[in-house]
Prior knowledge:
By secondary structure, the chain is of the alpha/beta class.
Amino acid sequence: MKYYDESAEDALRELQSSREGLSASEAAARLEKNGKNRLKEVKKTSLLRRFFAQLADPMILMLIAAAVISAITAAHSGEGYADVIIILTVVLINAVLGVYQENKAEHAIEALQTMSAATSRVLRGGHVRPVRSEELVTGDVILLEAGDAVPADGRLIEASSLQVEEAALTGESVPVQKLITALNLAAPGQEITLGDRANMVYMGSTVAYGRGTAVITATGMDTEMGKIANILETAESGQTPLQKRLSQLSKILTYLVTGICAFIFVVGILEAGKVTGTILLDRFMIAVSLAVAAIPEGLVAVVTIVLSIGVTNMSRNNAIIRKLTAVETLGCAQIICSDKTGTLTQNRMTVVEHYGGDEKLLGSAMALCSDAELGEDGQAQGEPTEAALVSYAKTLGLLKPALKREFPRVGEAPFDSMRKMMSTVHRTADGYVQYTKGAPDEILRRCTSYLEGGVERHLSEERRRAILEANGRMADKALRVLMAARRRYASLPADMSPAALEQNLCFIGLAGMIDPVRPEVKAAIQECREAGIRPIMITGDHVATAKAIASELGILTEGGVALEGSMISDMSDEVFDQVFRDVSVYARVQPEHKVRIVKAWRKAGCVTAMTGDGVNDAPSLKSADIGVGMGITGTDVTKNVADMVLADDNFATIVHAVAEGRRIYDNIRKAIQFLLSSNMSEVLSIFIATLLGFVILKPVHLLWINLITDCFPALALGVEKAEADIMRRPPREAQAGIFSGGMGFDIAYQGLLVTALTLLAYFLGHSMEHGVSPVGGGSPDGMTMAFLTMSMAEIFHSFNMRSQRGSLLTLKTSNNALLLAGGLSLLLTTAVIYIPFLNAAFGFTSISPLEYVIALGLAFSMIPLVEIVKAVQRRI
């Protein structure tokens, strides 16, 4: 029902209630029928199920397959199970990290539940009694006063100067003035946006001023807060771009491994000419070697650790990551849909402009004619608009406590929504003075004079027009304008009624206030544009205010479009799909509108981030590719749904996080290219050696290279500093494959180079040992030289990977971690060759110093060879 369309009496009748409330028996019956006034608890997934869900990841399944194959190899060869233990440890660590980062929705619902009041004052049978908020039912009549949390949705039946803070629900930056009259009298049935339903109150909001009485119209999941909870529960998070690319890579590698292994197995059987158990087992073990060579066992661990390092770096810069893959997603963000209140602005009303001849008097009048006070910390406390006026006076050197001592209040006519003003009377040294503040049109109508040079002069029509024009100029800037006036008395007025006080006033001045933009945001918006990221404002505030803020920040440029929520509601999906790309500002939106906007951009193929702090932002944060919550002003609901939380609520922190995300993704690609080119060289080396009839490397050698030698340089590439132009590039396309940008070709030729060098090392080692061709036989020297060359060629190649196209000789930054990794890998590789019990375990021989130098020389040649190819690529 649209209770805002109905009168208070009709709403009570519709809900079968009265101004005295329900009887205790009727309330109990309704509670039994409709259930408690609480949000539905999300179904919790067990820890065990979450753990096994992590194991279903394609890359993890490949690691498990590698562990099984390695176990079979160990059982056949009699070698140890160290490699199996290493792989399963990697799997376990990844699964535990995944479970730890997961399951935000249930925390979000729990946080929503804490936002409603624990108890409420309810009229039951005409008597006021405290009732647990979860036991409220539709038809209950509740009493509200300043400071109360609204426990359920309700239709107001009484309101006295009632103002309700709805920022968390609607995005409105100032408390909403409430009334009891029916809305839509001219057009009954027409939809009114949540922020404009002035005769309704909603669960999750707070009474900022005044008092009121409301009849409950919805409880639990039927409330507007319940609808948000339902959206949170049903919203789909989707895979991040990195997850999609790794899944794609897993499929490619799976098909590749399966195909090569099957081919080698069949070719081996055909070469043997007969099928026996021994031959089958031997050919199977060769196929296993290829499988071990093709699977990059260290890739999942490298990606996880690189992302974890990125998370640590970002937390130092006030960006707290709640989901590892969100780090990478930030790097390809193309759209940032930002809430206005508290994100782009300070969520603190501030006087930014004034009009009148005596600013000091204006500040004194505004501060004295308000109920806000200065706290012990020097900050104004109270209703946001009045707090802004007290803060304004403070900037003029006028402190409210001192003003109160000098001009004590002796009478008042409180604010109400009909008069749109309030008046206070104060004792002065020579009598009494009355200050009145409120809506400019209403106060000016009661003014007969104005203040100029400390003298009260007659208010002519010309001066009246000038004041109205000044008011108009401020309103055009989306400022909220209040007027102050005064009236002097020789003795204390006997009649303190509004009608007696508020006449024959003297105009003092106007104060224009707004929730100002954060000072650092404008530069951050500009940096976003330079990085090819489009910022879009989405707010529950009025369109004029939204357009003014967006224009000031550079979000709304000439020719840009601003759209109101009611217009979105009237649009079909087909129409909205045609217009949303042109819209830079959305105003008066509701939670479902925000979700619709985010989904439209995602459907268009754009990686979309959504920032926000209120409960109303939570569904859209969850629907976005990456949700960004605010750490200081943000609600617990938003923080629990967000992928990233800004500890300083600073929009500029997002820009730094985007740069870090781009750097991390670049580095992950470098690590993937490095690892895959290494694995390709292993596969090709085994494949060619098998066709030629000799064993170049054993499965345990390949596992050593994959898990020990390669992992350290890959991790070091993960901490490589950002390239100079990282924030001047356009965002990468979300659909771009893992091998885009020439990476597939680079992996292929680099893998072939390492293969050629490894085979050459084997041939040289065999020749130096036996002086004969290696075909048909084996060679400890050749195998050892091949192992050393392949291991160190990959180490030297890791230095090439510091830039995909840039020359290693022209890089202006250093990577000490990579130098350390290279040295450590050389040390470990040398150890397994020369330490007796290790080389015996690996089947190596202690090669001569000449053979060692030759193998290292072949490995080092990877650097000049790749430099030559890069030079050709840059020229092309």
